[in-house]
User: Fold these one by one.
Assistant:
Number 1:
Amino acid sequence: MKTKFNSVLIIGMGLIGSSISRALTENHVANNVYGLDSNNKVIKKCLELNLLIQGETNLENFNTQFDLIIICTPLSKYEKIFIDIASYISKPTLVTDVGSTKMSTINDYNKIKKNSNINFIPSHPIAGLEKSGPEFGFSKLFQNRYCILTPFKQDDKAIDSISQMWKSIGMTIEIMDAERHDRVLAMTSHIPQLIAFSVVGTATELESHMRDEVIKYSAAGFRDFTRLAGSDPIMWRDVYQKNKNAVLEMLGRFSEDLSTYQKAIRNGDLEFLENKFNQSKKIRKEIEDIGQAGSFDPTEKKN
Amino acid sequence: MKTKFNSVLIIGMGLIGSSISRALTENHVANNVYGLDSNNKVIKKCLELNLLIQGETNLENFNTQFDLIIICTPLSKYEKIFIDIASYISKPTLVTDVGSTKMSTINDYNKIKKNSNINFIPSHPIAGLEKSGPEFGFSKLFQNRYCILTPFKQDDKAIDSISQMWKSIGMTIEIMDAERHDRVLAMTSHIPQLIAFSVVGTATELESHMRDEVIKYSAAGFRDFTRLAGSDPIMWRDVYQKNKNAVLEMLGRFSEDLSTYQKAIRNGDLEFLENKFNQSKKIRKEIEDIGQAGSFDPTEKKN
């Protein structure tokens, strides 16, 4: 059974927000999708692409209340958004988000003056691409991907509504506490991303002839890191601020492990390297087996 | 003008060797492709796939001489292969290889007793996939990719023949000295690969519930690292032995840089992070602009 929303407001109409608006419309989950974004160009683009019934750069310009609000902005904007919607909302409204850290999200929410019409269920749909902007969004982004919910109070009806919404656009729901979410995501997302930025950063600081050659011959492996490093800088800057502790813990583990590889290379310990590489190969196999690997095409796409 | 070879021997019929055999045949560069592999199953598979006119596990079993020999094995086998072919070859033969390190290749070659019929021009086609085995090879693997030649003596005719061969299967030729090749490839290939193995290794050593969740939610970024980490362990073990110095140098630079990110996260230096992330994003753009980015499909391929 599908929950149908009459009016949904998406705050932040970038890649994720615009993909959600497409998916909600295509799957008939929402009658009317409204969009709010601080950048007027983004709103203009969304209206051109026919993604919204109404788009505004200021919440006060809307003349309606919403059944559901989905926050899709960088994490640093959450606190102000919670304040703004708390003073705007005058009828019962479900609120969710798509942020990559959940402890900080809940903390930001708990700081604001309560509005009893707001029912906030934090979400994190694990889906994305390295592109930014509404023109790159697409409705299938969420299909066969997980969405983690980290509810901080027991409200079965609200949790069920939010779950149904994500399911309607193709996602599988998992409930997790926020602290555990933040540790798991530090390892699966925040650390790989930071390392990708850092490896690419190292290359930018090479002598200039080396730098040009690294770019030229990037198909040798480097390009896999640059794909991640093409992601939105503001979004990621905020993640490292908001999930500092878990990120520093996992980064510590990674650095220790990397030192053991370094030592093995220095000492010519081939057996150690071969064993480690075999273990890693197995993990890849498991990810392929559960259908979470995506697919990489080593050829260029036709323009 | 195409150089046509009458008989080509490929030593090592894995992903790369089998892709070369397909490409040489499809592009009419070779009349007869012979294959040598120490693993009888690999040879059987190649014959099933109709990739070879003759396949053997022992060089002595061939009853013919070759115009061209291409070595496509892990680097640790090179020295023995050079010895074997030097005692087998009795007419002028071009020899090349596809190895990821070139100083070690030339050293291995220089160690053996000279056979004046051998003309060795080292190559490194920058193309690959994380899969291993002849069943995963395909003829288009080399199209629009670079092939670096590191000749150690001036023999224009031989260099031209080898260049033509790679060009015939779609590659662009670059000539470089071996030492520079090894430093550039340390950064574009060996370091990203080592870090990918290491990040995936860190995940395997987490508490078991965390490990399962990291696999489950790998679409968040981690899976990009596991793609590289799915590569052949033996091949890579050999690379780190053979390119030890350049790898340790670049690894040192990377570790220093990563520490600066770690410090910025600990101190909440958001400006530093944002600047660095913006620089990395620009490098990605350059790689896309020169058509070396490949294309990633975030959805699963239909089976």
Number 2:
Amino acid sequence: MKGLHVIKAGIVGGTGYTGVELLRLLAKHPEVEVTVITSRAEAGVKVADMYPSLRGHIDLVFTEPDVALLGELDVVFFATPHGVAQNLMPALMQTKARIIDLSADFRIRDVALWEKWYNQVHGAPELVAQAVYGLPEVNRAAITTAKLIACPGCYPTATQLGFLPLLENNLVDPTHLISNAASGASGAGRQGKIDNLLSEVSDSFKAYGAAGHRHLPEIEQGLRDVQPSGIAPALLTFVPHLLPIIRGIHATLYATLLDANKVPDLQALYEQRYANEPFVDVLPAGQLPQTRSVKGSNMCRIAVLRPQNRATVVVLSVIDNLTKGASGQAVQNMNIMFGFDEKAGLDVIALLP
Amino acid sequence: MKGLHVIKAGIVGGTGYTGVELLRLLAKHPEVEVTVITSRAEAGVKVADMYPSLRGHIDLVFTEPDVALLGELDVVFFATPHGVAQNLMPALMQTKARIIDLSADFRIRDVALWEKWYNQVHGAPELVAQAVYGLPEVNRAAITTAKLIACPGCYPTATQLGFLPLLENNLVDPTHLISNAASGASGAGRQGKIDNLLSEVSDSFKAYGAAGHRHLPEIEQGLRDVQPSGIAPALLTFVPHLLPIIRGIHATLYATLLDANKVPDLQALYEQRYANEPFVDVLPAGQLPQTRSVKGSNMCRIAVLRPQNRATVVVLSVIDNLTKGASGQAVQNMNIMFGFDEKAGLDVIALLP
Amino acid sequence: MKGLHVIKAGIVGGTGYTGVELLRLLAKHPEVEVTVITSRAEAGVKVADMYPSLRGHIDLVFTEPDVALLGELDVVFFATPHGVAQNLMPALMQTKARIIDLSADFRIRDVALWEKWYNQVHGAPELVAQAVYGLPEVNRAAITTAKLIACPGCYPTATQLGFLPLLENNLVDPTHLISNAASGASGAGRQGKIDNLLSEVSDSFKAYGAAGHRHLPEIEQGLRDVQPSGIAPALLTFVPHLLPIIRGIHATLYATLLDANKVPDLQALYEQRYANEPFVDVLPAGQLPQTRSVKGSNMCRIAVLRPQNRATVVVLSVIDNLTKGASGQAVQNMNIMFGFDEKAGLDVIALLP
Amino acid sequence: MKGLHVIKAGIVGGTGYTGVELLRLLAKHPEVEVTVITSRAEAGVKVADMYPSLRGHIDLVFTEPDVALLGELDVVFFATPHGVAQNLMPALMQTKARIIDLSADFRIRDVALWEKWYNQVHGAPELVAQAVYGLPEVNRAAITTAKLIACPGCYPTATQLGFLPLLENNLVDPTHLISNAASGASGAGRQGKIDNLLSEVSDSFKAYGAAGHRHLPEIEQGLRDVQPSGIAPALLTFVPHLLPIIRGIHATLYATLLDANKVPDLQALYEQRYANEPFVDVLPAGQLPQTRSVKGSNMCRIAVLRPQNRATVVVLSVIDNLTKGASGQAVQNMNIMFGFDEKAGLDVIALLP
């Protein structure tokens, strides 16, 4: 099933949900072989003993991270919590490996802003400028040649893909954008916290981080990047919510039309913007997306509508937070970096029902 | 447990979820005895055979609806789909019974507007003006003497209670209000529809009715009722979503401050507005509500905040759609109508976890 | 709502799920007032800040446990993990307080057996013999005068109530009993363990502890207690499973009839055995129990049947693990100990849907 | 992605969950192209409009079933409710198409027994003997040349694979077998029934059909087929339960050892029995299976243990009811019939988390 000249990949911090999702996708990728997976805490443990779904598909054992060994690989994925990748990065950047960081460490270009929101000193501020923000729908060309990819967050991916056509064309008031988003519990990672117990999350719904969530500056940076010059910079009100589901992000976006009497055909605008994107699906007019329609797939499905023909545009955008919101997008970046078919290993149908 | 002079109550259409919820609450109400429960489809069936939770608590049998019999009761609840109550109402209004209609039939004062959104001719338009909209936090005085109560819908209750302090005080732009709301599946009723199967709803999330939901005109009517005169009438963008939970509504409300430099203490404003309301709980600053904190209870819990100190106010409002959003509110109305303690039968602690 | 001469109650270890469930039940109990609730970890925290469902109902603050203070109360509940109650017990037994221990510390009379299964030295072995096993359906008389109650575990309650009529009457082979049971996730308590995350438990099902679960010796002790003398002692195969629900235990019990040709009317047998039990409901023949029919209630619902008229009897038994399986049963014990109506504070209807 | 000489496949009754699951698997199968999918009710509807997960992967439209057209295909799958396939079968058996029936119509060789349990006259009793029961782990050779495959039910697959090694070797009392099984809600199909609503199934658990489920005779037939001759025929007590999950079957099997003093190494027995089976995974001793470890995959995972070293053997067996329990097994049969790699199109990793 694998090609003749597969590249070698490593995963740093593979015990979390983005790690097992990378393994699920890479195990069947025709051009890649995962040869190293690291975890300080689980060194010596067989991957398949921790993730029984991988039995018979992955025969690796977790090992201690070793920069020399990682540096000989073609590509290294960081599936670590924020604050980890930046410590290994200076050494790893000296090696031949290309790096795809799924954490937040290199997403925000303004280091001071990063340090404020993440409440710590950045460990490799000099490398931030070298990182390419890995949203292919915006940065495909830069990704091709990147040494270091900062893979976007889950909420940022769903929100940016939903807003892009409106902002690129300056159709809405950029200072009153709203992203009302909801995420499945896997977004909080595989950590033993009371807040994420089934008994706490199940059969309930709540907002969290409404006063200020770390994805806010990342989203605003991304939205501002696509605005025409000379426009007031995007200001977003971002309220995330916790869904009693495992996978899925649903972003409900609101924006006010600058001129409600002179609005282009929004459906056509969105369809054209994403016509050549393999992983953005603009639904036919009248259909609304559901998170289950992308469960386990790398697709983002979007609907745009204008209720009551009033001044407020509503955009609905869904992704799987572990796939297009993390590991799938990382693989998409890898495909672009190494010249593979962009859909290689990602042409998966969502699991429905 | 019951008092000496209990009133007699009947329930029309008791097989649905609002019916069983009325029974759950009224069975333990100290001042009321349910003596009649009707269902054409289930006539002859024991209530406890349909709802095993009621075994040992309710010993009634479903019967065919009979206006003469209902008219001799003190209070009659309609727990029917829209379009049913209006047919029995002309006859029932001639009897001594006071009536609490949980359906949408008498909520909207503009009959033409009702007929447009509900897509049918109204069966008793002459009675619409006599109905009191049963939101105690706004209409308590009128409820006291009402013959016919139109009990508010679930989304309208959560949304109105969240917006009232802002609109009463004309603090926000009334023409750009947003209610991003999510409901548990019990809101769709106990009907055998594919869309509500566990295999369709579970482990997923979606918006629905985004182009126009029947609760929109009801909410806008309620919001306009509390605006000071001379103000542009409230215009709402309302996007409901379907949660994979049984009970609970979570409304995330957004409004733009008219003067971001001259904003009163919003926390204090909300606390004062609801200080004497037995079923509205304004959370301490910094706490956010969760639907499970009101599961099975008649409470509405609200938080208000202003993220990043910008111009957008966010209000979070949660209720149990079957309790404060339907049957609990109906009992609250009954308590007010008959001079009982407003909390009688409703002083229940939410089931958590 | 409270009576004139309420007793004073304390709860040791009130931060877990059995603690909040005790508060939910006792807050509305007419004869009891909770005046102390302890937690070393949360001392100083308002109970309602941890459990928002209790806002407006409970105005207590967690405090450090203090035996002197606890000893002045009428009743003290231990809602602690196993191993804690036994340390405070020697001192507390010297006070006037009567004690209801919801943990496993005093359930097993054979101290060596306890120490083997719980893998620790017992801290108060001399008190074990004084404890009364608090299953009212078996030990009501002894409970009346008990100083110390060992409240049964959740699986043991569901399993024993299901098997009792068969074993008391020596109708089945006692050496081949099977309890295939399933519990909601709240049974694992409110602890930050990865195994209990929504992302791990939800949308899945598994057995656990099949090789040997700590409730096995407790169940076998209880079953043997009700066997006629001279019979081979009960041997149980017990396989617990983890359900992706919050509350509820469902035990599916299997036993082989000793004489398949001479079997009494099992439905009548069960109905008679439990005719006077306020919290055991034998369903009509043909109905099967569901956990939701007891959610939040203290009821145990049971069905008995004999498929294909073969030699295997099947008994289905459901309870809410936090209510009849823990805190509700504790309150039932308290009611019996203090001569209250056995249903006081427990006459609650399950939350359905 | 498809091979050069793909076979052509049709699906009759493709609107249900087994239909969409067939499409998910066949869309990526390298040797097959689905060219026809029928549904009387949905004729003219695009498949992807009903199943948004298939957008971009399947471009078919539902059509009326047409035997002439179906007969020209290489393989026809029936994903219909029982009672449908038998009507089209006499005509279809005259064509060149080979047929894989996922329904119960041809599973039971004793037509009278089928008619009793399915409560209807069989429409093609003369064809029953020609059907091969499509459990590859038992009937691989016969499947190779079969014209008509009767694909096993979901409970029967999980139960038979769990019991086979014990029965083939006559290690347990065949007259006291127990299968305590639980299924996700998708097993009930995509039908608008109240019993399967999220509000009815979620956050609850119950047994159903305990007095007699249609899969009982199918399982007993399968178990008896593998018993050595001269042994008392297998008698099973089968109690199915409904899980609040979408996909997954978990069977907990109990059997009594004939000679508890002379038991082979059960772990080794199971590992050897299934050593060459691509879709049966015997877990290492000490590990227990979970349904999520096979979600979306065709794998059956099994554990065998003997608690307390007593006479009762416990076997735990999990499958995805829609994959190995239905559509995946159908594809596995097809692979065998047409000489493809048995894993073609089925080498999928379960979606975890």
